[in-house]
């Protein structure tokens, strides 16, 4: 089961908390540290990590669509 | 409590924020206070308001505004002299900050870890050679962040004593405006000279790269870069020093938890988050001023009134952290607001986290029997400083 991640790049301050929490899902641009979303619809196994990354982002950049949260 | 008591408040217990915060969270979370000059300001004591206000464009973080709130007159002098992006709103803030963010990415910080470890090992060697008792603040807490700054800036080792002296001269609640101004300018002068040196002899460091990418092409003036460097040196030293001092003392006061930390190497990252949550040394920032009337949680903040986002209180918010007044190195403390929130969220948080993870892990590995050399009551705390901390921490092992 997949879920969806959206980012609002314009808000990103390049703190990199997302990368520390979920390097499979996020990276930072070499030139200015702005977030790069590596997977838009990742596997459900990464859901909890994605939630943690979103919660720790200090600029509310990351939105996780929880409507289709995988069961189990 | 009176209608709008004088701020700041006094602590009654050394490791807990003033009792007024807990009462405010329960009764009036957006809490009115009076500043030293009679100005009205508001405290954000809860976690949710802290975050919403710091993301709200109806509040400004421009230090230069005449109505910008400050806890002392000296702080006003520092604010009005601030030329770097910590005191700017967007879009100017983002314009400058983006020139630096690539130097502070998660990957860059991870790459710095071995250097931080080498610096820590060197300082622990010196401590060991000297033998107990040692003042841990002097021997480790002040030295480590200064040497890490030298590494970041590529400045010569000898400069770290100057960097330490400038940081130490700041942030006093009783400091005179003249003194505040003088130390701030001395640091900018130092940065100006360092930029000249780096321009002539570039090396593999942050400063050389920023000069090459922004100063030489003309997108950043030397003057602006000197102000930014000075801001980074000011923001990154004292804060880290105080976390090291407070964190060590807190761990020594909780021997059961310290034992778990020593047993389990994997606990350190989590433990550092809990120390950051519990200790929150930045007591009177972030600050904002309302650009229009705004009502939050039944309190009407008028245009021109100041707001203090209080991390020592938000980090003890019962709605977010169970048993918030207990230290628990195993809890998930990562929602703490010790590094602020929104566009001014600490630029150096990744580096600070690495410094703390390295220093606490290595300190207790090297000296498993570390303990206080004097009774705990005799340890002097910084009750007269804006950034909370410890003055001296004599230890034996
Ligand atoms: C444990 C140590 C640290 C703590 C608790 C801390 C805390 C904070 C806080 C609360 C802010 C927000 C201030 C505001 O909104 O007015 C901030 C901003 C900042 N910090 Fe840190 N900091 C620490 C270490 C560092 C380090 C190591 C550096 C640099 C190497 C650094 C550089 C900065 C800068 C440049 C800003 C301004 C960011 C901006 O305005 O965009 N800090 N810090
Ligand atoms: S944590 Fe948020 S602000 Fe930081 S890099 Fe990731 S998306 Fe950007």
Note down, in words, how this protein is organized:
The complex is a heterodimer of chains A (72) and B (397). Chain A has 72 residues and is of the alpha+beta class. Chain A is built from two helices and four strands. Chain A has a single domain (3-70), classed as Alpha-Beta Plaits (2-Layer Sandwich), CATH 3.30.70. The radius of gyration of chain A is 11 Å and the shape is globular. With 397 residues, chain B is an alpha+beta fold. Chain B has a single domain, classed as Cytochrome P450 (Cytochrome p450), CATH 1.10.630.10. In chain B, β1 and β2 (40-44) form a beta hairpin. The longest helix of chain B is centred in the middle third of the chain and has 32 residues, at 222-253. Chain B is globular and about 60 Å long. The relative contact order of chain B is 0.18. The interface between A and B is medium-sized, with 20 and 22 residues. The complex binds protoporphyrin IX containing FE and iron/sulfur cluster.
Return the CATH architecture of chain A. Answer: 2-Layer Sandwich
> How many H/I helices of chain A?
2
Average pLDDT figure of chain A: 90
Identify every distinct bound molecule in the structure, by name, code or SMILES.
protoporphyrin IX containing FE, iron/sulfur cluster
- Identify low-pLDDT runs of chain A: none
**For the terminal residues of chain B, how far apart are their CA atoms?**
45 Å
- Major sheet size, sense and barrel closure of chain B: 5 strands, mixed
Count of discrete alpha- or pi-helical segments spanning 4 or more residues of chain B: 15
Counted beta strands of chain B: 10
What's the number of domains of chain A? 1
CATH C-level name of chain A: Alpha Beta
Category by helix and strand content of chain A? alpha+beta
* Rounded Rg of chain A: 11 Å
CATH architecture descriptor name of chain B = Orthogonal Bundle
Summarize the biggest pleated sheet of chain A: 2 strands, antiparallel
């Amino acid at each position: 089961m997949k879920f969806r991640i959206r980012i609002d790049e314009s808000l990103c301050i390049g703190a990199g908390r997302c990368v520390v929490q979920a390097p499979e899902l996020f990276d930072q641009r070499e030139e200015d540290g702005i977030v790069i979303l590596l997977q838009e619809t990742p596997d459900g196994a990464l859901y909890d990590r994605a939630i943690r990354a979103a919660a720790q982002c200090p600029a509310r950049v990351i939105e996780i669509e929880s409507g289709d949260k995988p069961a189990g | 409590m009176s209608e709008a008591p004088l701020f700041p408040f006094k602590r009654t217990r050394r490791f807990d924020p003033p009792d007024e915060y807990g009462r405010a969270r329960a009764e009036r979370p957006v809490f009115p206070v009076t500043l030293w000059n009679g100005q009205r300001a508001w405290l954000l004591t809860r976690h949710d308001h802290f975050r919403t206000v710091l993301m709200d464009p109806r509040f400004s973080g421009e230090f230069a505004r005449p109505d910008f709130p400050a806890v002392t007159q000296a702080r006003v002098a520092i604010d009005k002299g601030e030329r770097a992006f910590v005191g700017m709103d967007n879009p100017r803030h983002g314009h400058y900050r983006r020139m630096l963010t690539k130097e502070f990415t998660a990957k860059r910080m991870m790459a710095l870890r071995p250097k931080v470890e080498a610096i820590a090992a060197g300082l622990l060697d010196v401590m060991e050679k000297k033998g107990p008792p040692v003042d841990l603040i002097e021997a480790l807490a002040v030295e480590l962040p200064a040497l890490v700054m030298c590494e970041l800036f590529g400045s010569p080792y000898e400069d770290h004593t100057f960097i330490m002296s400038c940081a130490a001269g700041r942030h006093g609640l009783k400091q005179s405006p003249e003194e505040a101004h003088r130390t701030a300018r001395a640091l900018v002068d130092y940065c100006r000279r360092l930029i000249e040196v780096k321009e002539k002899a570039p090396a593999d460091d942050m400063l050389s790269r920023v000069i090459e990418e922004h100063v030489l092409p003309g997108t950043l003036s030397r003057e602006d870069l000197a102000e930014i460097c000075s801001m980074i040196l000011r923001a990154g030293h004292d804060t880290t020093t105080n976390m090291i001092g407070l964190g060590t003392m807190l761990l020594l006061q909780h021997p059961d938890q310290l034992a778990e930390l020593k047993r389990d190497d994997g606990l350190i990252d989590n433990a550092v988050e809990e120390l950051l949550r519990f200790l929150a040394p930045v007591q009177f920032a972030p600050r904002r001023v309302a650009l229009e009337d705004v009502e939050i949680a039944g309190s009407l903040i008028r245009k021109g009134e100041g707001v203090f986002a209080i991390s020592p209180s938000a980090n003890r918010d019962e709605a977010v952290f169970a048993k918030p007044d207990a230290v628990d190195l195993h809890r998930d403390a990562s929602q703490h607001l010790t590094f602020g929130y929104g566009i001014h969220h600490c630029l150096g948080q990744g580096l600070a986290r690495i410094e703390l993870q390295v220093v606490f892990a290595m300190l207790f590995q090297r000296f498993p029997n570390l303990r206080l050399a004097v009774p705990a009551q005799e340890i002097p705390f910084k009750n007269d400083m804006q950034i909370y901390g410890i003055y001296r921490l004599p230890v034996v092992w």
